[in-house]
Specification:
Elements lengths: L5 H7 L4 E7 L3 E7 L5 E8 L6 H18 L7 E8 L2 E3 L2 E3 L11 H9 L3 E5 H13 L7 E6 L3 E7 L2 E2 L30 H5 L1 H13 L6 H5 L8 H9 L3 H25 L3 E5 L1 H19 L11 E4 L5 H16 L5
Parallel strand pairs: 1-4, 4-7, 8-11, 11-12
Antiparallel strand pairs: 1-2, 2-3, 5-6, 8-9, 9-10
Helix pairs in contact: 4-11, 6-9, 8-10, 9-10
């Protein structure tokens, strides 16, 4: 297939719908939005990242096409696609998306060529933050941050009402902030970083270390001696059963999160700190009071007053909302000839 000119392609795009896609390590969620950016339909498939980076690209294409076909539409009905992916995104190229087996992948141009629709790409947590700001908070806060505790630990920043990416497009990588220089280390993260301590990966690593040292948890009965396949729902179940080991480690993760958020609050002074991700969705009732208490005790007196630390109500939909908003606004801002 020959090279596709983006300007000529965009000029011919007259579709009435926008697609927002959020790509995670385990699933791809795509949403179809009308001209008012109202969510009309969703489609979810597995990422299958274990099969390699090229397969992930194929799965993204499949998710977009199946969503469109399921709604009785064609790709010509799509005006633009927004895509949120892990990693640093610079001019449509993705760097360090290790869970997708991507490093310096020109995903924006690849998808434009394969789908023949304008595609705009940004970091997934940036787009989650944008979606929460515009949809859940109605765009009202001038300054807010999003923190996302899932398999990893990501973040996004809104300053003066706009998404802030920073000089090297990596602003909001809160997961790499070191909380304890002597703490545990997970793959692809620094020792004692928020991602190593408070993500699900970090919590599971902490659990496995404790089990190796002779401590016990009820999760061994269900998942085996090596705690294979621990998900956030398993942690929630163990907490409900008052498992002492899980309770202690989740408490420590919440405290580490609070310390990290205190640093973020001191740096940015946001009106809102919005929390999301699988760990927060499953465990916020236990973690949130600890996070708030710890954050309050690690900032100067009075400097956290009026700042709201809340779990997002959008769940997984935050990412696709943000992606659709980003796509529509990026298309409107494109050069015209």
């Amino acid at each position: 297939m020959g090279r596709v000119s983006f300007l000529s392609m965009a000029a011919k795009t007259t579709g009435r719908y926008t697609i927002g896609i959020d790509v995670g390590g385990t699933k791809i969620l795509a949403g179809l939005f009308d001209q008012s950016l109202k969510l009309k339909a969703k489609w979810k498939i597995k990422t299958k990242a274990d099969r390699g980076g090229d397969v992930v690209v194929d799965r993204i294409v499949r998710a977009a096409r199946e969503l469109v076909e399921d709604q009785g539409l064609r790709m010509t009905d799509i005006r633009a696609i927004g895509l949120g992916v892990p990693g640093v995104v610079i001019k449509g190229r993705v760097f360090n998306a290790y869970n997708l087996h991507w490093d310096e992948v020109a995903i924006q141009s690849i998808l434009r060529r394969r789908l023949r629709v304008p595609v705009f790409v940004d970091n997934d947590c940036n787009l989650f933050t944008l979606g929460i700001h515009r949809v859940e908070l109605k765009g009202k806060p001038q300054n807010m941050v999003g923190a996302f505790l899932g398999t990893g630990f990501g973040g996004g920043v809104i300053l003066n009402g706009e998404l802030f990416r920073g000089h090297n497009y990596a602003a909001g990588e809160f997961g790499q902030m070191t909380i304890d220089k002597n703490g545990l280390k997970t793959a692809h993260s620094f020792r004692g970083s928020l991602e190593s301590l408070a993500s699900r990966t970090g919590i599971v690593r902490h659990l496995r270390k404790a089990v190796l040292e002779g401590e016990k948890t009820m999760l061994q009965d269900e998942l085996g001696p090596h705690l294979t396949g621990v998900r956030s729902r398993h942690l929630r179940m163990a907490l409900a059963e008052r498992d002492p080991l899980v309770k202690r480690i989740v408490k420590e993760a919440a405290e580490d999160t609070g310390i990290g958020l205190a640093a973020i609050i001191s740096a940015f002074g946001p009106e809102y700190v919005m929390l999301n991700g699988g760990v927060i969705e499953a465990l916020h009732k236990v973690m949130l009071p600890i996070i708030r208490k710890t954050a309050t005790s690690h900032v100067l007196p009075g400097t956290i007053e009026g700042i709201k630390i809340l779990p997002s109500t959008l769940g997984d939909d935050g990412g696709i909302h943000g992606a659709a908003i980003f796509a529509k606004e990026s298309l409107a801002a494109r050069p015209r000839r």
